[in-house]
Amino acid sequence: MKNLLSMEHLTTEEINQILDLAQAFENGETSSLSRTYKVANLFFEPSTRTKTSFEMAEYKIGCHVIPFDAGFSSVTKGETMYDTVKTLEMIGLDAVIIRASEDEYYNELLDGINVAIINAGDGAGQHPSQSLLDLYTIKKEFGYFEGLNVTIAGDISHSRVAKSNATALQNLGANVHFLCPEEWSGGFEAHHSWDNLIEISDVIMLLRVQHERHKVNKSFSKEGYHQEFGLTIEREKQMKESAIIMHPAPVNRDVEIASELVECDRSRIFEQVRNGVYTRMAIMETILKGRE
Ligand code: CP
């Protein structure tokens, strides 16, 4: 694997190899890379988890992380993404991890660039490392995907997490259900009320309402959304005993999920963050090994 751009490019075999390697890292295996690779994290959109988690993963597999501050880079003076990444290649980097607001920004990097590209989120497109850590979390919980009912609830149209996970989970044999207000379905066939989704779901994956990507909508009510589409205290009580709650975070507490459910027994929200480090170690190791 030379790059990680979209879950649509990964075979189920490649997904399973990454999940197995993440498990090996969690079990204490160390990196077997043959040299110290130089990498940089280029985040043109805000991030807490993904950026820090990649930095920790890079540190744990022995990479040198070269600081890159997107807000003080020459991109702010109009330099293109291609010229920025080519410049970093000439300086000696082996891989760059990029988050940017433009869908499929990576297409302009596919010809003429010889550093590995890892997509840490492109606009409303894909978020493959989040999807892989979500899959790792589900696999650790259930041991399989086939036949699991996974409900993805929230701002589907703006969610790169929803798109990445839908493709991967369906390919792995899970039944994926979407729930959202009618205007947020983004072309997916979705439920617009919880119907019986609470009772049948093995995984309820809440998504953040992405206020920053919505045009000002004065009629939006956080409380109204919570009651109609959120995971309320009452709904949680109707979940299967074995079912889990997930959320890629950051969380809008009391909007998509009741605040007191964020750390309840069946919530894996902070566990997902922990799993992200092992998964990103596996992603980085796999891609850098491909360059050896
Ligand atoms: N889940 C996720 O991508 O979080 P950050 O925006 O904090 O990286």
Description:
This protein is α/β, with parallel strands linked by helices. Helix content is 35%, strand content 13%. It contains nine helices and eight strands. It has a four-stranded parallel beta sheet, sandwiched between helices. It has a four-stranded parallel beta sheet with strand order 6-5-7-8. Helix 1 (12-26) crosses helix 4 (128-142), helix 4 (128-142) packs across helix 5 and helix 4 (128-142) crosses helix 9 (269-289). It is globular and about 55 Å long. It starts with 11 loop residues before the first helix and ends with a helix. The structure holds phosphoric acid mono(formamide)ester.
Break the fold down into its secondary structure elements and pairings.
Elements: H1 12-26, E1 38-43, H2 49-60, E2 64-65, H3 81-91, E3 95-100, E4 116-122, H4 128-142, E5 149-153, H5 160-171, E6 175-179, H6 197-200, E7 203-206, H7 222-229, H8 233-237, E8 244-246, H9 269-289
Parallel strand pairs: 1-2, 1-3, 3-4, 5-6, 5-7, 7-8
Helix pairs in contact: 1-4, 1-9, 2-9, 4-5, 4-9
The structure holds phosphoric acid mono(formamide)ester.
